[in-house]
């Protein structure tokens, strides 16, 4: 296993008087946990050209998926370019805007990017030599939360504080510097990918409905759930709504964020994987994170409080950036949540059952190709294998949606 041309990326802004002696490459995570690309751990030994002293730079290399169908699924020709642009264009713009307002708490909820490339031939085509080189956050004390466990209340607060800033800052730029936003930011917020539904596994919604039938409390809402699932059965182009539309991460769940702890307390969050970001409502990111990534027991007790906590932080950021917050008040934000709730439900409930609480490891993931949701007997076998925690999460979300009149 090797990665070519590391020195050419590092020489632009990292090496400065040093040369690369050796690059040790291993897998960063377990096989089967890389859903949208290949992640490699790099230990890069460098030598100072004057003193001859050596040092080790701990980095992560992100490459496009190996399989061609996965490259097409994630639309790497657009999204990989977009991820490089996020670090090279958008992050500096967000941070500079805050500095213009004399803020000291500058957004820093992402790792340092050492550089990226589309290929090694100088063309505009993304190929298997494409690479994004990042600092290895694990060496700074960050780690992923176990997706089977999910975020507790303290951890969720740390992440939501950053999420509110990530949404509010580009929104404030849109409001305060509209021409700059349209020219320098908006063109990059266009990475959503829509693919035709080839129905390779059959109707996955049938299994979700079967699971709901196991719960007496969800029985009264099954017809409404079926209507929502059928409405969003096929991919649809998202129409951004003003005035809330802003930067949207697009794949915000437990595997795409890392947490740092001090004395057992969560103190810092980092977002990763910016390949799906787009221009849409912040409610989409918020609901997707809550449904997929917060511990079920915490959701049952605190979901309303978490929504209000996020909104409070969101408004606080807008105030600091001298924006009128009235168009974004709590009443209007609740309307915004309702607008995106059904779309997020259709995606997130599937994601909870088959990704968040799906098997860990490459061998188990390969078995998904045998799914046939149209076959009742096979569907029943799969239903019985679904983790109880996944079912409990689904039951709660359905009841909560019904209570909020989102179904």
TrEMBL record:
Signal peptide as annotated in the record: none
Domain CHK kinase-like: 132-320
Pfam families: EcKL
SUPFAM superfamilies, sorted: Protein kinase-like (PK-like)
PANTHER family, alphabetized: BHLH DOMAIN-CONTAINING PROTEIN (PTHR11012:SF55), PROTEIN KINASE-LIKE DOMAIN-CONTAINING (PTHR11012)
The protein's name in its UniProt record: CHK kinase-like domain-containing protein
